[in-house]
């Protein structure tokens, strides 16, 4: 079992490689090789005894994908993308990497399929940004994709390509729309959505965090551990049962900011909650208003995908995975 | 007012140019120039006194679109595509023309926009093939696009691009999902959907026609005259009121084959109906089962788009427009 991870230097990519190392197998077969690709050199996963190849590539170069699949990986996890904010600021770069890069990958696989029957499993990470306001709550599986960002547009287009290439038999693909990942480890960043993680992660280690929105803002979350779980399940499951609609909204937890704070209080006490500074920011409030409050995710749940069911659980996952199990 | 029609040699393109000639104006301004583009030379519309430029171009060549917009047309009707059957048989050609061709056009406009502020109205003809079975009846405006053909995939992708380019202000675009055009003038063709027109058009002139499906098959229709009406309305209307969801399922008439035949009986008598030969074809029945039975088209109707409300009316339109007004 040879696995290719594209976007392996990112937070989810690193956690995925570590999980694959721990599991040692995928689809019931021993993992003997991993190719870890990204625009910067990915770290080899600690403890992996098989062959590791680190590829530093720019997916927007047509030849990059040919090189990546030259070893005919059995499973390809495609996590690479430039993020929403950057794709919005740099229109051309967004399309080059998020759309053309993905299409080059799909085309390279199609050409290999026609040459030698290559037909890998392709797991593509899409995003809840494929939908756009006004949105019902919860959003049904059959709701249309009318993105309000170039990033969401690029993801929605790749979903369509993935279904068509899968229908034609060029590869066996599945697209998964990840919820907002919470609690995102690391430092606070400038993403408009950063506060959802900041207001929990920072107080848990005694640091202040800024809350720029009101507590009634509702959003859709899953832990990094769940995100990796979705990827593993996507690689293992029988895709025949998914049928031609290959893109699925992943399960998650719909919660208000107030519910996040209540969970923090239960897990870490009033002292932690007091570290959240309320500084309303009109611009972030306006951006937030267009975000998905939550999905039904009926199909994904029926297919065995699972996520956290409370923010207490999401916080505990963070404490276990990032803080060595203790506060 | 300078108008560019891409796909001007096709049936709808020809009727559009003729209608524009008859109207003499668009958006309340006199039409002084028409550029008619297609892979084969389009016929100049009879009676047009402005400047006509005939362009024979292959839209899948990146430079073609630059040439087409060199004269900075005020309104661009983009009707060009290779049809569903051909796009399914020739995967590469389908993507080259239906996706890349459209993207080259949008990119050429974006570059012109950045160079000199060019911002034309773009009317894009999409298709009901953007949806795929299983389908509810009627299909709501907010139903997701899960096409089951490469053609439908390409149209759905172009819809997404159109919305994003419009949102960014590069052009002022609208995508319209045309129903199946009925009664399509001309000779019977080999398209799987051809029988919807054949069973009316041929008997109306005393010819036999073959019906390959059962009479309970329900589908979604509008006349060629209505299709042209949608295009004109799309060019004239204020798109601010459409908002960011720039793709609309057009109104139409949902009817069973049995209802088509009853209308034929009322308009042309039992003699005409007797010319329909029932020859069930399993393959066509299976293909048909995946087609759209009808749409709510709530938004489009509210925005002033109109279509026929009975098959009697559709037949009468055909008699007026194609048979000189009499049977």
TrEMBL record, chains A, B:
<dbReference type="InterPro" id="IPR036291">
    <property type="entry name" value="NAD(P)-bd_dom_sf"/>
</dbReference>
<dbReference type="GO" id="GO:0016491">
    <property type="term" value="F:oxidoreductase activity"/>
</dbReference>
<feature type="domain" description="NAD-dependent epimerase/dehydratase">
    <location>
        <begin position="3"/>
        <end position="207"/>
    </location>
</feature>
<protein>
    <submittedName>
        <fullName>Nucleoside-diphosphate-sugar epimerase</fullName>
    </submittedName>
</protein>
<dbReference type="InterPro" id="IPR050005">
    <property type="entry name" value="DenD"/>
</dbReference>
<keyword id="KW-0521">NADP</keyword>
<keyword id="KW-0119">Carbohydrate metabolism</keyword>
<dbReference type="Pfam" id="PF01370">
    <property type="entry name" value="Epimerase"/>
</dbReference>
<dbReference type="InterPro" id="IPR001509">
    <property type="entry name" value="Epimerase_deHydtase"/>
</dbReference>
